[in-house]
Design a protein that fits this description.
Elements (H helix, E strand, L loop, with lengths): L1 H43 L4 E5 L9 E4 L10 H22 L8 H29 L14 H35 L8
Antiparallel strand pairs: 1-2
The chain binds zinc ion (ZN).
């Protein structure tokens, strides 16, 4: 009985470690890309950048610090600088979903692809909608054109809802494929 439990944990543990090995780089990639697009946006529009903090902004968060103080930012280009990162990452999430067959048939690569999709489909819509209610952040750029923040949060919430449904469907698809693969393997049911 105990040996069965150990065996189960060993197998499962290895699998979770593998997933973690995918999830961490995917989350880092997402974060780096988000901040890089802020940075590139600022450069393109000739806005100064005083710091590029990657994971060093407290609680492991990142931030590109612009020379112009928030309250002095005026003009539509600030919307691009602030929102392009979330748009780019989320579009990449749709790209990952659309190209999910690239992951092949192996359950591990399928799950790896799914994990990357998790961050790219959900993180920024969550940040721009629900999380922004608590921490503000990129949504506040709306003030640069005299707009309130809530329409941005509402649109982000709609995107989040859509993406959660998309991700759930994708997750189910990967799970069903895994079960089908396991059933195909001889002796998978262990009966004997
Ligand atoms: Zn941002």
């Amino acid at each position: 009985m105990i040996s069965l439990l150990v065996e189960f944990l060993r197998k499962r543990g290895r699998r979770y470690l593998l997933y973690l090995g995918v999830a961490v780089p995917a989350a880092l990639c997402h974060n780096l890309l988000h901040e890089a697009v802020h940075y590139i946006g600022a450069i393109v529009f000739g806005e100064g950048v005083t710091a590029f903090r990657f994971l060093t902004n407290g609680w492991g968060t990142s931030q590109v610090v612009f020379s112009m103080p928030v309250e002095q930012r005026v003009g539509g280009h600030w919307l691009v600088v602030a929102w392009a990162p979330s748009i780019v990452t989320t579009l990449l999430g749709y790209g990952l979903y659309a190209a999910r067959s690239v992951a092949g048939r192996h359950p591990v690569s399928r799950y790896a692809w799914l994990y990357a999709g998790f961050f790219f489909l959900l993180l920024d819509p969550f940040y721009m909608s629900l999380l922004s209610l608590a921490v503000g952040g990129d949504v506040e750029a709306a003030a640069a054109v005299g707009l309130p923040v809530w329409p941005v949060q509402a649109v982000a919430a709609a995107v989040l809802l859509f993406n959660v449904r998309l991700f759930t469907r994708w997750q189910k698809e990967v799970q069903e494929a895994r079960v089908a693969t396991e059933e195909m393997q001889p002796g998978a049911h262990g009966g004997g």
